[in-house]
Amino acid sequence: MSSFDIEFAAVTDIGKIREKNEDNVLISSDLGLGVVADGMGGHSAGEIASNIAVSVLAETIRKVNNQQLKIPDNFLPKLDPVERKLLMAANLANAAIYSTAQSSDIYRMMGTTLTGVLFDKDCATAVHVGDSRLYLFRDNKIVQITTDHSLAMEHVRRGLLTRAEADHSKIQNVLTRAMGIKKNIEFDLLKFPVKVGDMLLLCSDGLYKGLRECDMAAMLAQGQQTPIVKLCKQLVRVSNENDGQDNISAVLIKILPAQKMSFKQRLRRFFSKA
Question: How many domains does the chain have?
Fold first, then answer.
């Protein structure tokens, strides 16, 4: 059992110029899951791809939890159970998008990013592909936990561009990895401890194109007593005002002290898990 409670909020906005919103977000307090996916491809294909990504990921985790689905014994046995569950769910989501993409010429180029985080005990486990991001806000500092799978960031890693140049580069939107493009893809899997007071921010690139990291940190620091939904809306609104050239999505997660439960609440929790 976790030694804290978790509060979730999610906001997605079409932005100023796009005709449709191809981002999808999902939060589930009962699963301890938050997900952002940023779809791509014409004819609504991006919207469909990102929807499949978040829905299959959550549904698979739910089925494993309810013992309706078993993780094969030979599936990455060296990883811990939470990592195996999250990675299997991501792989099944990718297979579903790839299969849909192959079924019709209209969907042939569909794909999506995926950044999801699953909580278990005192740890967060993240699965990630593409250029959506997961940030950790702790002690008034913000740190990007994920690595962008983009051509621009590949050039930064090789010393061909600075981080500032990459942010304004023409190749910024070229992904080196995404879901749905290939039958089997490589996801990044990251596990780290969380503690009371932490905030986690998952977002599509539309958010960080309109908000510098120092601005995100300032808003999160000032908004620590603000209701989490209001704070999440504020991040999206300010990014949209500053840029708004893309769809903008954010999932904000706050780690709170464990609530003291009454005897009735403890009984209810016990029997709901029995």
Answer: 1
